[in-house]
Amino acid sequence: MIRSIQLEPKKMALEIAKLALDKKAEKVVILNIKKLTAVADYLLICSADSERQVQAIADSIEDGLRKKGERPLGIEGVTEGRWALIDYVDVVVHIFLGPVRAFYDLEGLWSEAQVTEVKERSADKPPKPKQQKATPASPKPRAKAAKKPAVKK
């Protein structure tokens, strides 16, 4: 199967992270394994709270990249929903249930890789200022001074 590369590997990994976060993936990390192996350039690892969420994250990634002209070389484990693997040749995606991720500890296996933690997108943006209703200027009421307790001599 000949495939055309639409996205550079790093951009693809970041796009996959965005698509995973859109489905509430947790602990999203990108491991740069380019200098450690010829298997792929990047591993993207994330966690889900349920089997359905594993499936939803996998579907979101596949659909989102398909719209950009990318098709996976292979997909494994999505129907079981405990550990899904999506192979985009240069980027390999692992979506785990939390306990399964801890058991296989891919981050520990690839401990020499450069790690990029991907935070929720909303955390990257500054908070919106709250809109307040405009009110006419009025004198502010004075705060009452606290009474000092009487000191007996």
Description:
There is one protein chain. This protein is an alpha+beta fold and 153 residues long. 29% of the residues lie in helices and 22% in strands. It is built from five helices and six strands; from the N terminus they run H-E-E-H-E-E-E-H-H-E-H. A hairpin with a 3-residue loop joins strand 4 (83-87) and strand 5 (91-97).
Oligomer: single chain
Shape: globular
How would you state the average pLDDT, rounded? 83
The radius of gyration over CA amounts to 25 Å
Strand order of the largest sheet: 3-4-5-2-1-6
Helix content: 25-40%
Low-pLDDT stretches are 122-141
Instruction: State the total count of DSSP E strands.
Output: 6
- CA distance, first residue to last residue: 98 Å
Q: Number of helical segments?
A: 5
State the main characteristics.
153 residues; 5 helices; 6 strands; alpha+beta; 6-stranded mixed β-sheet
SSE diagram, text form:
Elements: H1 9-22, E1 26-32, E2 42-48, H2 51-66, E3 74-76, E4 83-87, E5 91-97, H3 98-104, H4 106-109, E6 114-118, H5 121-124
Helix pairs in contact: 1-2
Briefly say what this structure is.
The chain is of the alpha+beta class. 29% of the residues lie in helices and 22% in strands.
